[in-house]
Amino acid sequence: MIYELHYWPTIQGRGEFVRLALEEAGVRYADVARSDDGEDAMLAFMDNERVKTPPFAPPFLKARNLLIGQTANILLFLGEKHGLAPAPSAGRLWTHQLQLTIADLVAEVHDAHHPIAVSLYYEEQRREAKRRAHHLIKERLPKFLGYFESVLERNARGPKYLVGGRLTYADLSAYQLVDGLVYAFPKAMARLSKRFPLLMALHARIPQRPRIAAYLASGRRIGNNEDDIFRRYPELDE
Amino acid sequence: MIYELHYWPTIQGRGEFVRLALEEAGVRYADVARSDDGEDAMLAFMDNERVKTPPFAPPFLKARNLLIGQTANILLFLGEKHGLAPAPSAGRLWTHQLQLTIADLVAEVHDAHHPIAVSLYYEEQRREAKRRAHHLIKERLPKFLGYFESVLERNARGPKYLVGGRLTYADLSAYQLVDGLVYAFPKAMARLSKRFPLLMALHARIPQRPRIAAYLASGRRIGNNEDDIFRRYPELDE
What we know:
Two copies of one chain form a homodimer.
Chain A: E1 3-6, H1 15-25, E2 29-31, H2 38-47, E3 60-63, E4 66-69, H3 71-81, H4 89-113, H5 126-154, H6 169-184, H7 186-192, H8 197-205, H9 210-217
Parallel strand pairs in A: 1-2
Antiparallel strand pairs in A: 1-3, 3-4
Helix pairs in contact in A: 1-3, 1-6, 3-4, 4-5, 4-6, 6-7, 6-8
């Protein structure tokens, strides 16, 4: 079986959290929407009334007869299947809890450039974006990143991973989160990152993993761009 | 063992999704922050550096030595434990996927009155709220509610429940979601609800369940109010 990942073909977006897990797991997958007519295939899937468990939005993953939507839910599945999360209930739930908290911040980062509506261009909500980004940088980033720093600090198995003594999908997602923030807010992150040495060390370590290194150097990794969740708009940086 | 639920004591908020599941399961729980000094206990818990798996925010649930945060994650746990979700992987993931989609809309509804920052009063972001609420009502509510309607429609076991032929925590959460929307946006929902008869029928059916009926009639159910996620601000209704 080959997994089918369905996600927008020109951005990292939420699909990237899934891509990183698939790459680290070393499993075969087709990034469907990036093939010819793949985006049409993805959209047709979403509109197909014979699909009994329709996803609300991409990303979604097809695994044999399973169709799984919601990024964190896909990772819950992949984590269990491919050893990217502890098997016991306590560790499995804790990993998922961290992922959901990462997802919350990702949504807030998105809304920093789209505080009014996803249906409007950034240019149509620029003033509001400026206001929201200010609070994101001043209040939310320190709060969230400080939280992840404290999770690393408190890990009884040491500060190398968020959960226990082995890599989980939450580490990969934390890498992607920090990576996106450094891209989007270089000035703010240059300042803030000093307060979160363990998190920044994790961010530096993940790309050294052989499979992740190979992935990041490949054409499969889509570059940062301003259609994505993490956007570099200098006027929003501080 | 008695579960300990920790959540803000004066609002339904995200804690209500957990309360409804606990009530329907018929299990004993303490709503800690609503007891004397309970809110201090909750906050002390969050600041306690000896807690190895700290929650980022309430609600969180203490179950023996497990500490579980993130609403959807708590429901994942309770669903497995108390038969509020199918046991097989496919149904369990599908139920969770729906819950995460409900959570996405809940966050959007919150941001309709707080589009700039949670740290600011509504009155300080009123103009932006008006703009965002317009798009919520015009675009997002129809899209999300239409999605849940189609999930009910496509259920091979009939349109009574979101998943299969039995109640899951996703049904309880869908009830709470619709209930909050009807409170917050009475005019918009009077109009919109006609397009979602199956979802509205689910919303009407849940309060007839004996345990939920008893709960809603009890002092344990906190009334709607304007410190909550679902707020009735007539100027945001359409």
